[in-house]
Amino acid sequence: MSKIILIHTQAGIDWKNNSAVFAVELARRLDNYFEVELLSGAECGSFSRPIHSLAASSDRLANPWMSNLLNRRLPQPKMAIAQMISFLPCISYLLNHPADLIVPQNGYAGLLAANFVRAIKQTPILFTDHSSLNQEKNLERNLTLKPNRLITLNPIIAKHVRRLAPNQIVDTIPLGIEPTEFMPEGKAMMTGLPQPCIITVAPLKRYSDQRIELTIKAVARLSQASLLICGDGVDRDYFQALGDRLLGSGRFQIRTFAYAQMPQVYRSGTIFTSAAVQESCGLKFIEAMACGLPVVAMDNPVHRYLIGNGGITCDLTNPDLYANSLQSAIARHWQQQQPRQNALRFSWQGITLLYYQAILKTMTTYNHRFSSANSHPSING
C-alpha cells in the first residue's frame, strides 16, 4: 500500500482554522485507502505525527520586536513565526520517513518543505492551495514552487491558475461537509432570539474583509428580524455596542460556540448571511445550506458557484439592497430543500473520491517507484 504524508502543523492545536480541520478530516478518510501520516501540531488521530509547533494565536509568539519586524513584510506575523518553527522538523521527518507522495495543506511553509525534499528524493507533491482571488500574491508565490499537481477550492481560482501558469496541472476539489452531521433534522440551539433569526459567522475584527457592520446595519432596517453573530475577536465590545444600539439587546446577540455545536446553531436560524468580500472555500455557506438555511452573500463568481440555487447574491455594500435581499430570503418558499440539495454537492464522500483519484494520478505519473498495479482498496470499499 502506498504511503502519503500530509502536512499541516496547526492541525490539532487550532480547531478554528478551516484548512487545519480539513487536513485532519482528509487524513482520516484517506487512511482507509493508503498508509497515511499527518505532520500535525498535536495529536489528532492514529495517523498524526506531532511536529514541534505553536498555535498561531499563542501568546508565546507575541514578541513585540519580532512582530514589528514581520508586520512590515507579512500580513500575519504570528502565523509566519509558527510556520518557521515547524519548518526544519518537517524536513527532518520527511527525509527520515520516505513517502510516495507529499500532500501539504498549510500553505507556503509546507509546500517549501516538500519542495526541499523533492529535490533530494524526487518525491512528488500534491498541493492544496487555500488562497482566495484577493490573495493573488500568495497564489503566485506558491506557483513558483511548481507542485506536481495543484488543487484549488473552486473553478474560478483554477481558471486564474491556468492564466498565471499554463503548464501547471490543476484540479478543483472544494472543501467538504458531512451531510449526516449538518442536516435540517435534529436539536436546535436555544438562543432566546425572536424569529426570523439571521445568523452570521465571522471573527470580530474591524476593518476586515468580513464587514460585519454591513450585516448589522442591514438587519437593523428590517422591522422584526434578529441577528446572531457567532464569533469572537479583539473588537467584540465594539460590535456588541453597535448591535445593541441599532437592534437592541432583544434582537441581537454575539456568542461563541464549539465547532461541534454549529449544526444546532444553524438549525436555530431562518437564513444565513455573510458580508465577506469573498469566501474562497465558503465552508460556512455549505454548512448552513446543509442545515436547510438559504444564504445571502456578496455577488461574485466564487459565491455564485458555492451558493448555486441555495440563496441570493447581491451588492451588499448597498444597505437597501442588502436588507431587501435578506427580507426576500426570509419570505421565499424554498422549493424541494434547495439549500440542502445544493450543499450535497460538497459531501465528504464525493470529496474523498476526487482526492483518491488525484493522488493515484499524481503517483502514477511522477513516482517511478509507483505502479498502478500497487494494491489499493476501491474507494467504494
Topology (elements, then pairings):
Layout: E1 3-7, H1 18-30, E2 35-40, E3 48-50, H2 64-71, H3 77-96, E4 101-104, H4 108-121, E5 126-129, H5 136-143, E6 149-152, H6 155-164, E7 170-172, E8 197-201, H7 212-220, E9 226-230, H8 236-246, E10 252-255, H9 262-267, E11 271-274, H10 283-290, E12 295-298, H11 301-307, E13 311-314, H12 319-331, H13 338-343, H14 348-366
Parallel strand pairs: 1-2, 1-4, 2-3, 5-6, 6-7, 8-9, 8-11, 9-10, 11-12, 12-13
Helix pairs in contact: 3-4, 7-8, 7-12
Task: Describe the protein.
This protein is of the alpha/beta class and 381 residues long. The chain folds into two domains: 3-176 and 347-366, 3-Layer(aba) Sandwich (Rossmann fold); 197-344, 3-Layer(aba) Sandwich (Rossmann fold), CATH 3.40.50. It is built from 14 helices and 13 strands. It has helices spanning 18-30, 64-71, 77-96, 108-121, 136-143, 155-164, 212-220, 236-246, 262-267, 283-290, 301-307, 319-331, 338-343, 348-366, and strands at residues 3-7, 35-40, 48-50, 101-104, 126-129, 149-152, 170-172, 197-201, 226-230, 252-255, 271-274, 295-298, 311-314. The strands form three sheets. A six-stranded parallel β-sheet has the order 10-9-8-11-12-13, sandwiched between helices. A four-stranded parallel β-sheet has the order 3-2-1-4. Residues 54-58 have low confidence and may be disordered.
